[in-house]
């Protein structure tokens, strides 16, 4: 009985110690805001010069534009990349003439209308969207400065012939763009939310659509 009692007491002390350790290591202050968020448009109102404010707004939107979720589909080499480190697509794949894969191996051979969960450990889901494919060659972003990307986005020759209003609609409402915030298990979403991103782009347009220095 004495041995049993000692074991019970010891177990109780160990449990209490674990609880006390948990309490001791709990933060006493609220956690800092995640770096994966976006500032609001109102955050830039203190910048009096419209051109400077425009550049600052686009720089903030650049957190999305230059995130892996966007860059993987905007490669320079016309072959998709994967992951946060932008490693080559596995299995090897190229854009093909349409941007939706080569003849006989279209993107939709694997990528469906929506994300599909897998049983794998390293790949938790296969991304999907009705318009899944690579961005046009003229919209290649990987390896380019934010200023150079901005110039591409503004130019109708390299943005699919879009006006600034059409560009805003594409970024703020396009379902394929929105996939960046719903990339499936195992992938880090783009910062903020698509609505916030759209607000930043609209404010950038309203302030003159100025670009950061290339």
Q: Would you mind describing this structure in some detail?
A:
It is a single chain. This protein is mostly helical. It is 37% helix and 4% strand. It contains 7 helices and 4 strands, in the order αααββββαααα. The strands form 2 sheets. It has a two-stranded antiparallel ribbon with strand order 1-2. Strands 3-4 form a two-stranded antiparallel ribbon. α2 (50-65) packs antiparallel against α7 (194-206). The longest helix has 24 residues, at 2-25.
Reported for the largest beta sheet, the result is: 2 strands, antiparallel
Separation of the first and last Cα atoms: 79 Å
- The percent of residues in helical segments reads 25-40%
Report the order of strands and helices.
Answer: HHHEEEEHHHH
* Overall 3D form: globular
- The side-by-side strand order for the widest beta sheet comes to 1-2
What structural class results from the helix and strand content?
A: mainly alpha
User: How confident overall, as mean pLDDT?
Assistant: 85
Strand content: under 5%
Low-confidence stretches: 1-33
* Helix segment tally: 7
Radius of gyration: 24 Å
The total count of strands amounts to: 4
């Amino acid at each position: 009985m004495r041995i049993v009692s000692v074991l019970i007491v010891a177990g109780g002390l160990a449990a209490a110690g674990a609880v006390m350790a948990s309490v001791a290591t709990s933060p006493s202050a609220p956690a800092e805001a995640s770096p994966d968020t976006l500032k609001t448009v109102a955050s830039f109102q203190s910048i009096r010069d419209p051109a400077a404010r425009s550049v600052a707004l686009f720089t903030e939107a650049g957190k999305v534009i230059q995130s892996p979720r966007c860059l993987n589909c905007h490669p320079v080499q016309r072959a998709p990349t994967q992951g946060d480190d932008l490693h080559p697509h596995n299995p090897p794949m190229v854009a093909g003439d349409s941007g939706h894969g080569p003849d006989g191996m279209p993107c939709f051979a694997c990528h469906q209308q929506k994300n599909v969960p897998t049983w794998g450990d390293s790949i938790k889901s296969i991304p999907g969207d009705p318009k899944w494919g690579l961005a046009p060659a003229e919209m290649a972003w990987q390896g380019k400065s934010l200023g150079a990307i901005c110039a591409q986005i503004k130019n109708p020759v390299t943005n699919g012939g879009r006006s600034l209003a059409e560009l805003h609609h594409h970024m703020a409402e396009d379902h394929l763009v929105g996939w960046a915030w719903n990339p499936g298990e195992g992938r880090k979403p783009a910062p903020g939310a698509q609505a916030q991103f759209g607000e930043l782009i609209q404010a950038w347009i309203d302030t003159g659509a100025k670009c950061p220095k290339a």
